[in-house]
Structures are given as C-alpha cells and as structure tokens.
Hints:
Chain A has 130 residues and is α+β, with helices and mostly antiparallel strands. Helix content of chain A is 30%, strand content 25%.
Amino acid sequence: MALITFTPEGGKAALEAAYLAALDDNWDGAGSKRVEHSTYGYAQKFLQFLPTLSNNMALPDIVADTDGEILFEWDYGPRKVFSISIGRDGMLSYAGLFDRNKVHGRVSFVGALPSDILNSFELLSKHVGS
Amino acid sequence: MLAPDPAPDEVTSRYLRHSNQYAPSNGRVKPHALHPAPADHKTSVFRVQGLTESEIWSLGDEHILNPSGSELRARAELLVAQILGVGLQVEPQEPPQRHANIGGWPAEKDEWMLKAQELAAVATLRLRAAPTA
C-alpha cells in the first residue's frame, strides 16, 4: 500500500480542505453538521504535534465527519487503523484497532497530546508493517 | 420478495458518495464511511439480495444523492451476519424499497468509531466498472 508521508504542509492543506468543504449544515446533502471554527482551531493545534511523534508517519485522512467534528484517520489495512475525532470544545474521541487489540476513549486536548493518544500511536507503529 | 427480518447470509450495500470514503489501491472501505448519521444515529444501507450487479447500481443511483452530481462509483458490501457480529443490528425501514439501517450504535463517539473500524475490516469494496466509450 502506497502511503503519503506526513508533512506539515500536506497536513495543513488537507485540514483546510476538510474545513472548507463543511462550512454549512447539510454540506454533504445528507444532513451532516457544519464544522465550527473552534473545531478547526483545535484541529490546527493537534496537527502541530504530529511531526513530533514519528519521522515516517503517514499523512492521515483528514475529513469532516457527519457530526461536524474533524476526523484524522490512519488506515494501514484491516485491523491496523487509528482514528481521532476532534470536537468543537477540544474533546478528542479516539479509537484504534491493532490486530486483536482495541483501544478507545475520550480525553480533553489542552495544550499537549494526552498520554492515551501517545500510547495509541505507539501501538499503531508497532503493528504497522507486521 | 425480501423477508421482514434480514437473514444472516443476506447482503447489504452501503453506497459511498465521496471518493475519500474508500481506497481502490488496496480495496479498503474507510471506517468513517460507515459512521452513523447525526440525525438518527443510524447508517443507511440497502438490502441487495437477489439483484444483479447492474440493478444494485441502479438502486443506488435512484435513491442516493451524489454531491458531485455524477453516478455512484463505489459501495461497501456487508453481510447481515458481519453487522450482527460486531454487535450492531440491521433494521429494515421502507420506503424506499429495500432500504434498511444499521442501528444499535453505542452512544459515545469513541465506542461507535471502534465499531465502524470493525465493520470496515470485514467490508468488501465494490467498484463500478468504468463506462465504455
């Protein structure tokens, strides 16, 4: 599977595209909620931490979710996937499937990446390529 | 004629309206393509048992609004048994004909994101053949 390596420029462009695509309610014609500016702000802050996690991280899918949150999804194949959804109040909902291991939870994002998220990235990196 | 209660071996189809919902390069349906809608917390599918490939695409074209205005290019196929296997339900809801919902999603987002990942792991990506010139 050809993955695009994460770069700050690539991440910023993907995030901006996701935000601009969902500025109004019903942006997808199926009743989805708009992405609020505060959500975009938290997503921008989150993006700044990604280069510090790994030198060869893949660029995640960055999309507006139907509930108005912004979703970062690393999909390396079946059961090698990690998703983080960012809410308008900075709440992070995360879930990961790493072979037989499952993680999920909700944590506040206040200036630094929560340890639960860091641990999940570590699990993901262990399973990628295995 | 479809049975009122979907059988475990029945096939359902989730039409994918955005190109970011799937990856042709590795045949993957992206987990977020299966997320429930905010309005009713359910994921819309169609029961396509007994239909030909052509009829399955026609069903989607008839009932699914594609934001790009072009015809649908992809769908995720899931057996009812696979949906039940991750602890979700298939709830027939007509009209339109053959429509159903995947329901039973947990209330908390982290929990339903995990369910969507489990569903995506077993989903089969079906791509529409390119039109011949």
